[in-house]
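ok so dumb question maybe but i'm new to this and my supervisor (M.) told me to 'just get the structure for Peroxisomal membrane protein 11-4' and walked off. so i did the thing. is this what she meant?? sequence i used:
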Amino acid sequence: MNDTVDKLVIFLAKRDGIDKLVKTFQYVSKLVHWHVEAAHPDAAHKAKQWEVASGLSRKAFRSGRFLTGFNALRRNPGSTPTFRFLAVLANAGEMVYFFFDHFLWLSRIGVLDAKLARRMSFISAFGESFGYIFFIISDFIMIKGGVEQERKLITTSTDKSTDDVKASVRKIREDRVMRLMAVAANVADLIIAVADIEPNPFCNHAVSLGISGLVSAWAGWYRNWPS
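this is what came out, is it supposed to look like this??
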C-alpha cells in the first residue's frame, strides 16, 4: 500500500490512530497556551479550552480499554516465565490505569463528584507508571535479545548475502525500531504520570509535559501507521 490517503484513512479508523491524533492536538495546544499566555491571554484561553476538550475526548475514546490488557494476558502472556511475570505486572498496571481513568473522566465532566477527580487521577497515574516500568524492561530485554540474535546470524552465516539472512536481519532491525518507539512513548508517558503522582518543577513544567506528550503521540503514529 503506497497511497498516503488510504493509509491515513486506515490509521484514523483505529482507536489508537484517532487517539494519537487527538493527543497531538492536546499537547500542541498545551505548548501554544504556555507560549502565548502572557502576551495574548485570549488566544491562550482558546488554546487551554482545546487542550482540555482534547484530553476529555481521549478519555471517552478509551472506554473499555482496560480489557485489552486482560485479553493480552489471557491470549499471549509471554514465551518464558520471565516474560510472563513482566507481562502480568505491566498489564495489571495498565488495567488499573484505564479502569480508574473512566471514573476520572466522569468526575471531570460532572457525572460524578468533582472531588473524586484528584483521587482517581492519582490511582490511574500510579497504575500507569507502574505498568510502563515493566513494559520498558520487557522491551529492553527483547532489544538485547534481538541484537545478540543479529550478531549470531551475521557471524555464523557462511554466506551473509543470502536472501534468508538478509530477511532475518531486516526483520530483527524492524522489530528493534518498533520497540525503541515503544520505549520512547512509555518513558514520555511515565514523565506525564509522575507529574500527577509526585508534582515537581521538571515534570510539571508545560514544556516538559508538552514535549513528552508529543514524543508519545508521534511514536504512536509511527507504530500504528499502516505499512
